[in-house]
Amino acid sequence: MHQEIILAGTGGQGIQSAGQVLAQVALEQGLDVSEVSQYSPEVRGGWVLSTVVVSDRRVGSPIVQMADCLLLMSQRAADDNKGRVRPGGLVLVNSSLVELPPIPEARVVAVPATEMAVELGVQQIANMVMLGAYCKCAGTLDIVYFDQALQTVLPERHHRHIPLNLQAVQAGVEVVIASGE
Amino acid sequence: MAQTTQTEALPSHEEAVYRRPAALTETQMRYCPGCTHGTAHRLIAEVLDELELTDRTVAIATVGCSVYAYEYFNTDSVQAAHGRGPAVATGIKRTSPDSIVFTYQGDGDLAAIGLSEVIHSAQRGECITVLFLNNAVFGMTRGQMAPTTLVGQRTTTTPQGRDPKLEGTPMMICEMLSGIPGVAYLARETMIDPKTVADARRSIKKAFQAQADGAGFSLVELVSSCPAWWHKSPLESLHWIRDEMLTQYPLKVFVDYKRQD
Amino acid sequence: MMTGNVATAEGAIAAGCRYFFGYPITPQNDIPRYMSEQLPQIGGVYLQAESELASINLVYGAASTGAYVMTSSSSPGISLMQEGLSYLLGAELPAVVVNMVRGGPGLGNIAPAQSDYWLSTRGAGHGDFGCLTFTPDSVQELYDCTYDAFEIGHKYRLPVMILGDAMIANMSEATRLRERREPPTQMPEWAVGGRRNGRPRRVVNSLWTDVPVMEAVNLRIAERFRQAAQEQTRWEEYGDDRPDILFTAYGISARICKTAIDRLADEGLRARLLRPITVRPFPTDPFARWAGQVERIVCVEHSMGQFIEDVRLSVDCRPVELISRTGGVLMTPEEVIARTRELIAS
User: Fold this and answer.
1) Which of A16, A70, B163, B188 is deepest in the core (most CB within 10 A)?
2) pLDDT tens digits along C221-230
């Protein structure tokens, strides 16, 4: 098993946290993992990328040109990165914020993540909705590991939000099931 | 060795009134005749002995004529890069807080290349002592202009005299540092006659006392001579300090440390 | 999971380092952040200096007391530290200096680069010079190399550089931590701090105007370096046991090569990676061993051809080909594969 995932969005969308949670989930599952976050120089509102490589062998290059899976959280992230998926790859789009023309040779799944997050109470957990949807679509990572992963990655003062984050993950799984994808 | 023999030979009823302080080694100093570095070294050494600090002291030799200070002070010593004495002293003080740490810096080392280090050490209230020898000229590199060179003073690199329009005005280190809250003791002294030597010794003692008491940063500027690059005799040099240097650099205790006990 | 920066800082603390002096510069700011949070809690000292000139001289002062001390910076800051590095070496003081390299020259950018190879291995200061240099390629190895660097530095009385880059500094990977060690209680016989209990005074110095003495000091340092080369040279080999191509790379470039080698193997091309973990001392022996057994030697680096010089000096005059990018541009495994194919075709 070897999978390369790029999460792309805008500052404030929790892209880096999502990348780290996903990496920790892989780690909890016994896989090797490397996560790299990159961002534009502006402190607020710039672009953010998190690249996660998970593998059942030692991860070689943490640098990815074409990913197996793209998670596009904002319009700018989608415009800049929509070409970075391998043929036959998976693209998850936050359809609340992103309009995306179909990508040939890729499986595109629309997830209204921001709207679902608002319904759950907090816009900031749209990232977790997307991770839940990713796990369901890709089938490589098991959502049972999210609880432990969130406890490890989130600072202790945010641990009271873990149940809500888990709800968001679950909602992501369910929206994929409901869509019949 | 000769001195030891001499001391031993003294008749028992006589009291030695003048001997080498224990805080100085027996190494022959390399300073020019008439230079006040020798006096300054002796005053520091006397104070360290008197305050019983010699065995706790680390001396920082810097770059300039006093680069060999580590051979003269009979203490642990560290030779520092040009201008970086206060940073090195801080590194030692922070890892070895029981030590007494002082830097011995000339005007090139402190006021030119090392200005940033001395100001920031003062700003942090670093418990170190700085002895700042100001003789208005770069000595070791053969008499170039220093930041403290007087207006009109001829040096190797101001052959027509320092022109304030071209080279600016003399840098007043004590005045610059005097407003910094971390400074516990700050004074400008000289060593041109018995009275000023006694005053200088008192200020040096207060500066080290401030450090020993953990009161903060202390600095004593010593307005000094350079007969070689002033092109004057030793006596003329002392007169030039009195008549010219002290006009620009008035003697003053800027910050007087008061013991908290 | 932790970032390379945090692993570096934690490795230092675990080794017993309790003193850190630094000045802010991207991309290594997580090291001082972590140190400023941790050190005061365990009896250590974190101090933000007014410049890198001050940082390295704070390190010099702390090192002269025999303490385990560290600073970290990135390329432009390391340029400013070169003077202090030279003084550390001249005064025979150990200290650990981390360089998370960014694109240059000049102000450059904050992207990952390997263009300070010469700075570390040739020019880390004036004078006859050689600090030990580690080139880790993973977060785990950053932790391990930094952990080892203090003891090694003290053993040979040499400054030690950890040569990373903006990528390994900021990537997160699983890291096995060792138990935090207390700082050494026995101070070395050269450490200053006041001649307590009447011991003879000690002097830390790099000024030797008597030239034969200076030569003797340099030979003494060189001898310790030679000993370190015998005992501390590290490298890793990866890939095919009977390769046609020998890749060589260090740090992040080596990680990219590992994936490239795996994919080339799928395409039926036999390749092996020889990765120095120390570049000073340089692992010349394995290079000499493999040089005669492969059809081509390919050096992959993120600089204009710096590392390749040491490779060429180690392969018995065999030709060495270069695949490189510069200015902070990172190669992907796909690019390395494509350019390797071009070399084969030409």
Assistant:
1) A70
2) 999 999 999 9
